[in-house]
Amino acid sequence: MTFRFSALILTLALLLPGLPAHAQLTVTDDVGQSVALPTPARRIVSLAPHVTELIYAAGAGHALVGAVDYSDYPVEARAVKRVGSYVRIDLEAVAALKPDVVIGWRSGNPATQLERLRALGLPVYINEPRSLDAVAHSLRQIGILAGTQGEANRAADAFVAHRNRLRDDYGSRPPVPVFYQIWNQPLMTINGHHLISDVIRLCGGHNVFDTLDVLAPKIGVEAVLASNPEAIVASGMGESRPEWLDEWRKWPTLTAVQQNNLFFVPPDLIQRHTPRILDGADRLCRHLDTARGKRTP
């Protein structure tokens, strides 16, 4: 009997080689780096407000133990311990929370600070969605990291369905040349690789600065005058329309000024890489349709 039992164990070992006690999960982040965790993360630190929002949307809010300033959505996020700002991370505070994974932001977090977190032995996943498809992908990836794939996949599917409805409604309408203004001093816009440009395209618009090399370039007033956008869209910093949007009325030759196509979209709805960006897209699409309606037949 002992011989037979030993033979059975040997046979199973040969048939099932290399089975670990705990299956490791591995994902590739948005800069192509592999991030491996022994088990789904139970303690997560977010290094960007939009990442915090994605974590909750993916059903992993219960695992969030640290977040940067301005992580204010949903309301529950406001009670999470702060670890500095996205441009000035409190590395000691992050390490003290003993996270299973840290989720950073490529174009927002200083690269040197992300490297220091890795040097401390912390797994760091970099998030950098540049398209609406990438927002859905971010939800699915966070779901894998946190073991909440079911809820994350449902959120991603709902996001894609909403995106498709907007594309079907607005994507093939006559194009509207758009200047999207991030800020006034310095005057800043976005290029064609920015997520907001994908939203503009979704609505049947065309970013007049889409060929610039820098993701969020500084430009001059002369460049805006030369591009002569049919619509100017700005978000500013808060829920109120920025006063500087109406400063374009100083240049009455601009088509956007002549047609009174100076539009505002709240920044939380279009400048965060989260499912809420489609709420901003809803508003932007309606604004661009308003611009179309003012054209002379």
Automatic annotation (TrEMBL):
The keyword Ribosomal protein does not apply. Residues 1-23 form the signal peptide. Residues 43-292 form the Fe/B12 periplasmic-binding domain. Keywords: Signal. GO terms for biological process: cellular response to iron ion. Pfam families: Peripla_BP_2. The keyword Endoplasmic reticulum does not apply. This is Cobalamin-binding protein. It comes from Denitromonas halophila.
